[in-house]
Amino acid sequence: MMSHLDGNAIAGPLSEIFGADMTMASGRCGGCGDVSPLAMAMVYLKPNAYIVRCHVCDTMLIMVVESRASVAIEIEGLDSLVIPR
Amino acid sequence: MTSTWKVGTVAAIHAETPTARTLELDVPDWPGNLAGQHLDLRLTAPDGYTATRSYSIASADSGPRVQLAVDRLPDGEVSPYLVNDVIVGDELEVRGPLGGWFVWRPEQTEPVQLIGGGSGIVPLMAMIRAHEAAGSTARFRLLYSVREPGDAFFAAELAELERSSEHLEITWVYTRKTPDGWPTPAGRVTPAILEASTISAAENPTVFVCGPTGFVEAVADILVELGHSSGSVKTERFGGA
Description:
The complex is a heterodimer of chains A (85) and B (241).
Chain A: E1 5-6, H1 11-18, E2 26-29, E3 35-37, E4 42-46, E5 49-53, E6 60-66, E7 71-75, E8 78-82
Chain B: E1 5-17, E2 20-26, E3 38-44, E4 50-56, E5 65-71, H1 79-85, E6 91-98, E7 112-117, H2 121-133, E8 140-146, H3 155-164, E9 168-174, H4 191-197, E10 206-212, H5 213-225, E11 233-238
Parallel strand pairs in B: 7-8, 7-10, 8-9, 10-11
Antiparallel strand pairs in B: 1-2, 1-6, 2-5, 3-4, 3-6
């Protein structure tokens, strides 16, 4: 299996969706309840997609799909997301 | 910070190592960047297929010039093109600056331990440059692990800083081949090396670790064993480029 990156790798597409830096945003994992900055999540790179998993329990948190025409996020296993002001 | 795609022009290129090059891009409307931030770079094939990868920025300036240093990864989709094919004058699509987690700001005064493996030096170099440019007196210590002396990025600049800077200390680790006369044999970073050659947890440093995933995980695990809280150790992994 390909080695993973971390949440820094999804800063770009998420900045287009949220209009903010999301690497500092705290996500709560729906699998284990861990609360961590998205920067600490594990990111698996697929062609035109990023799979984001909890760094503690491996639960799939979000998927980001990006093409020239659009960028999309599917919220899979995040209970909450807090963006620092 | 909303980041959308911009077109940058390659303004200068030079070799860093046998497999890596520095690319300087002029990006109109680039807002400047913090030390440690990265950008996304997108290549588009004639059939419309795109490949996007993140690259750390080696510079931390306010102007439109952005410096990247890219290592060619075997089987990579993007890095071989950047290292082998791109020429001055080429246009590249970039998005950034990105990231607020793995950054160092000149107003930080606590000790900083930087630990880099291979091309993982790139965002750490931006921090070292920002530290120098700001005249910061914060204690900086760098541990830089490379396979052999010829694989070091920014070798001349680091050697000069090692001589001239009062606030930067550098430790080199060679994993495959050391310089002639080096006091210790080649080998990977060990708990003993980290304990002897990095700022101790008792001094409450902020620690930045960047490199290939295996390197980052091994180092981060050792740091926690040495008493650093996981919240004070910031990591950035790369690979698959």
